Amino acid sequence: MRVFKSFVLLFLVPMVKGSTVQLKNGGYEDIVIAINPELPEDHNIIRNIQAMIKEASTYLFHATKQRFFFKAVKIIIPLHWLPKPEYLSVKTESYDKADVIVANPFLKYGDDPYTLQYGGCGEKGRYIHFTPDFLLKDNLNNIYGSRAKVFVHEWAHLRWGVFDEYNNDAPFYVSVNSGTGSVEATRCSGDITGKYIVQSCTGNSCTTRECKYDQQTKLYEAGCKFVPDKTQNALASIMYMQSLPSVVEFCDRSTHNEKATNMQNKMCNYHSTWEVIMNSPDFNNTSQINSASPPFETSFSLLQTKDRVVCLVLDVSGSMSGNNRIKRLYQAAEIFLLQIIEIGSWVGIVTFHSTAQIKSNLQQIVSDNVRQNLIAHLPTSAGGGTNICKGVREGFEVIKQKYSNLDGSELVLLTDGEDSGMSSCLTEVENSGSIIHTIALGPSAAPQLEQFSDMTGGLKLYATDTVDSNGLIDAFSGISSGSGNTAEQSIQLESTARSVAVKQWMNGTVTIDSTVGNDTFFVVTWDQSTSPPDILLRDPKGKEYRTSGFTVSNLNLRTARLNISGTAEVGDWLYWIQNSHTVSQVISMIVTSRAASLTVPPVTVKAHMNKDTNNFPHPMVIYAEVSQGFLPVLGATVMATVEPQTGSAVELKLLDDGSGADITKNDGIYSKYFTSFKGNGRYNLKVHIQGRNKTVRLGRRQSRALYVPGYIENGEIKMNAPRPEVSDDEIQAKLGSFNRVATGGSFVVANVPSGGTTDVFPPCKIIDLEAQFEEDKIHLSWTAPGNDLDVGQADRYIIKMSESLLDLRNTFENAISVNTSSLIPNPAGTKESFQFKAESVTIENGTVIYFAIRAIDNAFLTSEVSNIAQAALFLPPKESLPGTLPPDVISDGINVSIIVLIVTGAVIVVLIVVSTTVCILYKKNGKGGPALRM
User: Fold this and answer.
1) Which helix (H) or strand (E) holds 685?
2) Distance between CA 420 and CA 74 in Å, rounded?
C-alpha cells in the first residue's frame, strides 16, 4: 500500500484548467456548473440541477462514510437568457473553466453523462458533461439511475481520478473458482446477480433469450448483455451500476473484484475505488463528520455572463526596444484586434513604463472601423522603467469608466521586465473579480508574473525572442473568449515561420475544411525590409492572390493581410513567398478563420500540460484534445513544439494509441511524456494538427455512466430501449483534410542540474499488455515503451507469470520468469508480439495464468510493473455452443407441446418393447420350464 500511495500522490497535481473548487471541513465549495450559450432558455434546467445536487450531497455523504458533501454551487446562465434580479455577474468563473457543463451532444450520441479524463489513476478530470435531455427527461432515470446517483458517479471520476468498473469493450471475462471456470460479467462487486440475455428486435417487437457461448472467443456471443436483478443484497459499487437501489457504496478492498477486465483495475493497479479515494488529498485533509446527514444544505448562486470586456495592458519600458520587441508586440496585438477578439466585445488599451497611460477607452467591436481605430492606439516606441501595478490599476480604471465593477472583465498583461513592487497590488488583483491573462516576453520577465493568472484564473503565456517561432503572435491568438460559443471564436489554422535566404522561397499548404471558412485571414509577416516579399496565394479552384492584393498598413510596414470575402473555398490553399530583400529575413504565415456554420461545430484543439510548475526530475505530460463538438476526432497527426527559455525547441509527435502517457486509445486526446529539459525557467507549448487524405472517425467518450440494458423484477425480464447506436456513415467526419494550430500556454521548471541532465527516466509503464492461449502456446502483445518513458528504445524485458493475480502484483520478483533471451525491444510505440510455451504450468480446461512485464533501459532503470494480463483456457459446455440448445432454454423456436408429444411417444415405445419381451419370456417358460413368477 505504501508503494501504491506514493504512486497516486506523485501524480495528484491539478490539471491546468482553472477549477475553483475548494474543500472546507468536508464541504465542496465554488463548484461551477455552466449552461452552454446555445441552449434556449429553460428554467427547469436550473431547477433540476439544484434538485440533483441537493440529493447528491446526501448520497455522497453516506457513500464516503460521513466525510464529504456539496456545500456551495455556482450556476452560469447564458447571456441571451432574460436577466433576473437574483442573477449576479460572473467574476472569474467562465464556461471553459466549469466543472460541469450542460450542452447538447454532437450527432445522435444519446444522453450518456460522462467525465472527460486526461490523466491516470488519482488525477483530476477536466469536466462533467450532462445533456439538457438528461436533466429534463425523467424516463432516463430507469437507464442511468437517479440524477443524484449519476452525479456522484461522475464526481468520483472528476475529483478523485477513479475509473469505471464495467467495460463495454470487454464485457465478460473467465473466472475460475474451486478449479472450475465460468464466464462472468465485468463488474464490481462480483456479488451483483443477474442473467445473461440477448434481445432481438424486429420493428417494435422484441424477444429475449439467454446467451449462448461463442465458439471462437469462448465467452458469450456478441449482443449478450448482463441484466441485473433489480432487488440486490450487494451494496457496491457506485462506479459500476449506481442505478441499482441497493448500491450505496464504492467498492473497497473487501468487495473489490480485481479479476474484472475494467479500466479501474487497469489504471489503478487493481486497487479498489475506495482505496484510491482514501489516498487522495481530499481524504487526507478531512475528518469524519459526526452527523447523520450533511451539516449544511447545498447553497446556489446564479451568475449571468455579460459582453466580453478586455483591456490590453502593454509594457513599453526601455527594454521593449531591444530584440525588436515593440514592433513584434504591434504585429501580435494587431492580429488580436483585427482577427481574434470577437464581435460585440469591448476593448480598451493601456500602456505602462514607470507610469501608465490610457491609450483608448473601451470601444465595442461593431465594425472594422472600430478595429482599425483601436490599432491606431497601439504603441510604437518604448522607454522608461517598469511599474506593473500602475499598468494593472490603469487597466481597471478603463473598465470602471463604463462598468460599476470589474466582475467578469479581462486584462491582457504583457511585460518583458522585472518589477520589485509587484506584490503591492496582489491583494487588489485577487479581490478584483477580473481575469488577468499574462504574457511573459523574453528571458527577464518577472518570475512572479504568473501569480496574477493563478489568482484570477487567467491564461499563462510565454514568448521567447526567437523570431521564427511566432511565439508572441501565438500567445495573443490563444486569448479567445471563454464563453463556450465556438461559432464566434477565431480558430488558428496555421502559424509557421522560418528564416528565408535572399531570393529563396517559403512554400506551404494550408487546408481549409468545411467546418471553418468565415472571416478568414491570411497574414504574412517579415522582420527586416519595409517592403513586402513577393507573395502568391492560390485557392483550391485556382484563383490567385498576389502581393498587390494584400493590405500593408502605414502603421505596420512588416505585415501584409488578406481577408477572404464570404466563406473561403474548402480545400488546399497553396502559397509561395519569396524573400526579395537584400539579406535573409524571417518570414511567417498566419491563417485564422471562424466557423462556417452556426449549427455545425468546427474542429477545435485544446493543448495542455499536466501541470504548470514542475521540479526536475519529474516528467511532464503534453496533451492535445482534438474534437468536433463533444466528439473526439481520431486519426490526426499531432506535433508538439516545446520551446525553452534558452536552447533549441523540441518537437514531439503526440499519439492516441493507449500506451505510454496516453491512457485511452482512440479518445481524441493525443499525449506524450516530455523529459527534454534544457534548463530552469519558462517553457512554451504549441501544437500543429493535420488531418491528411484519410477518413477521420469520430469516437465516443469513455468514463461515462453505464447504459443499463434492463432489469429483472420478480423473475420478469424488463428491458430498456436499446442504446441508440450511430451508423458508420454518421461517425465518418466529413472533414477531408484540415489544419489547426493551438498554443498550450507556458509552464515553469525548476531544479534542472546546471551541468546537464543524466538518464533519470526509466521506460514508461506498459498499460496495454494482452495475453491469450494459442493451442499449447501463450501469445503476448503490448506497445513498446522507450528508453526515457515513451521516447527511445528500452534495452530488455522481464516477463513474469503466476496463477495468482495479486501475487504477481504484490511480489513480481518472486513470480515465475519467462525466458526472454530472444526478445529484443523495438522502438517506443511499436507493437510487440511474443509467443512461448509455458513449460512450468499444466494447461487444462479452467487454467488461468496471469502475466506482467517490466522494461529495463541501458542505464538499468526499470519501469513499473505493467497492467496484468489474463490468459484463460475455458472450454464451454458443448450443449451451449452456437447452434445447440442450452439445457435450461426450451423456448427458442421450439414449441413446448411438440416436446411433450415427443417425450410421451418415447415412453409409449419403451412400454411396448417391455411388454412384448415379457410375453415372449412367459411363453417360453410355459412350454419347457417352471412357471415365471411375476
Assistant:
1) strand 681-691
2) 36
Cα–Cα distance for residue pair 273/156, rounded to 1 Å = 9
pLDDT digits (tens, 9 = 90+) for 697-734: 666 678 889 999 999 999 999 999 888 777 666 666 56
What is the set of active-site residues? 154
Q: Is there a contact between 128 and 56 (Cβ–Cβ < 8 Å)?
A: no
φ, ψ at 107 (rounded to 5°) = 65, -170
Q: Which of 423, 432, 436 is nearest to 389 (CA)?
A: 423
Annotate 669-678 with b (16+ C-beta within 10 A) or e (fewer).
Answer: bbbbbbbbbb
* Residue 17: per-residue pLDDT: 52
Instruction: Round to whole Å and give the CA distance between 413 and 391.
Output: 8
Number of Cβ within 10 Å of residue 750's Cβ equals 10
Q: Which of 470, 481, 493, 462 is nearest to 741 (CA)?
A: 493
Contact 480, 595 (CB under 8 A): no
Please give the grid coordinates belonging to residue 518: 468565415
DSSP conformation letters of 296-332: SPPEEEEEE----EEEEEEE-SGGGGGGGHHHHHHHH
- Distance of alpha carbon 314 from alpha carbon 348, whole angstroms: 11
3-state DSSP assignment of residue 772:
strand
pLDDT in tens, 82-100: 999 999 999 999 999 999 9
| 259 touches 189 (CB < 8 A) | no
> Can you tell me the distance from the alpha carbon of 174 to that of 20, in angstroms, rounded to the nearest whole number?
44
Give the whole-angstrom CA distance, residue 636 versus residue 643. Answer: 22
Type of residue found at 19: S
Helix, strand, coil content of the chain in percent (nearest 5): 20, 35, 45
Query: 756 falls in which pLDDT band (50, 70, 90)?
Result: confident
Residue whose C-alpha cell is 502483445: 781
Residue 517 in contact with residue 593, Cβ under 8 Å? yes
- 434 near 92, Cβ under 8 Å? yes
- Asked whether the beta carbons of 536 and 480 are under 8 A apart, the reply is no
Q: What is the pLDDT of residue 923?
A: 44
Hey, CA dihedral for 339, 340, 343, 349, is it positive or negative?
Answer: negative
d(CA 311, CA 666): 40
Residue 525 has pLDDT above 80, yes or no: yes
pLDDT, one tens digit per residue, over 544-600 is 999 999 999 888 889 999 999 999 999 999 999 999 999 999 999 999 999 999 988
Q: Would you state the cell numbers that stand for residue 526, as one nine-digit string?
A: 517579415
* Residue of 661, 301, 684, 260 whose CA lies nearest to 472: 684
Residues near 157 by Cβ (< 8 Å), separated by ≥ 6? 115, 117, 125, 128, 163, 703
